[in-house]
Amino acid sequence: MNDYKSSSDFKSSSEFDYDLFVIGAGSGGVRASRIAAGHGANVAVAEEYRVGGTCVIRGCVPKKLLVYGAHFAEDLNDASMFGWDVPVKRFDWSVLRDNVSAEVDRLEGLYGQTLDNNKVTLIAERAVIEGPNMVRLASGKSVTAGKILIATGAQPYMPPIDGIEHAISSNEVFGLEKMPGRIVIVGGGYIANEFAGVFHQFGSHVTIVNRSDTILRGYDEQMRDRLLQISLAKGIDFRFNSTFDRIEKREDGSLHMVMTGCDDIEADQVLFAVGREPNVGGLGLEAVGVNLGKRGEIMVDATNRTNVASIFAVGDVTDRIQLTPVAIREGQAFADREFGAGAPPIDYANIPNAVFSHPPIAGVGLTESGAKEKYGTIKTFTSDFRAMKNVLAGRNERSLYKLVVDAATDVVVGIHMIGPDAPEILQAAAIAVKAGLKKEDFDATVALHPTMSEELVLMR
Ligand code: NDP
Question: Is 205 annotated in the active site?
Answer without folding.
Answer: no
